[in-house]
Specification:
mainly alpha, globular
C-alpha cells in the first residue's frame, strides 16, 4: 500500500471514529452528560490499541460531543483528558494479560475520573465543592468509564482482534 493511500485511510478511519463517537453521545445523550454518566462512546477509547488514527478520532469526537454540552471548560478539559488518555492507551497497547490489553483500558478510566471529577466539582458545582463531593464525583465518573472501557471496551477489543476483517478495516496496513 503506497504512503498516500495510508495517509488517506488514516484520515478516513479517524473521521469515522469521530463520527461514531458523536453519534453514540447523541443517541445516548441522557446518560452521556452530567455528574452521573456512562458515556457509551468512551468504548471507542480502546481503539488506539489498533491504530494511532483512533487517537485523533476519539479526540475530535469528544470535542464535537463536548460542544453539545455548551461548556467551554468541558470542550477544553474533557477533550484534553481524552487526548492524553488515547495517547496513553496507544503506548500501553502491547502489554497484555491473558491476551487482553487490560492496562491500555485504564488511562481513560483514571484520567477522566480525575479531570471530569474536578471539572464537575469545581466548575459546575462550586457552591458545594468539598473533598467529599470531589471524591464522589470522581467515583461516579470512574464507574461510568469502567463500564464503557472495561466492561464493554475490552470485549470489543477481543472481538476486533479475532476478526481479521474488522482489524484490517481500522488498521493502518
Amino acid at each position: 500500500m503506497n504512503n498516500n493511500f495510508k495517509k488517506i485511510k488514516a484520515l478516513i478511519v479517524a473521521a469515522l471514529i469521530a463520527g461514531i463517537y458523536v453519534s453514540l453521545c447523541v443517541i445516548f445523550a441522557p446518560i452521556s452528560f452530567g455528574a452521573v454518566q456512562v458515556r457509551i462512546s468512551e468504548v471507542l477509547t480502546i481503539l488506539p490499541i489498533f491504530t494511532p488514527s483512533a487517537i485523533w478520532g476519539v479526540t475530535v469526537g469528544c470535542l464535537i460531543s463536548n460542544i453539545l454540552s455548551f461548556s467551554p471548560w468541558d470542550m477544553l478539559l474533557g477533550t484534553l483528558a481524552t487526548l492524553v488518555s488515547a495517547i496513553c492507551t496507544y503506548k500501553l497497547r502491547n502489554i497484555r494479560f491473558k491476551g487482553l490489553p487490560i492496562l491500555a483500558a485504564i488511562p481513560p478510566i483514571i484520567i477522566n475520573a480525575v479531570v471530569v471529577g474536578l471539572e464537575i466539582t469545581y466548575i459546575f458545582m462550586p457552591e458545594s465543592a468539598s473533598l467529599a463531593v470531589l471524591f464522589m464525583n470522581m467515583a461516579s465518573v470512574f464507574v461510568g468509564q469502567f463500564i464503557s472501557c472495561f466492561i464493554i471496551g475490552l470485549p470489543l477489543a477481543k472481538l476486533i482482534e479475532k476478526s481479521p476483517t474488522l482489524k484490517k478495516l481500522i488498521s493502518e496496513d
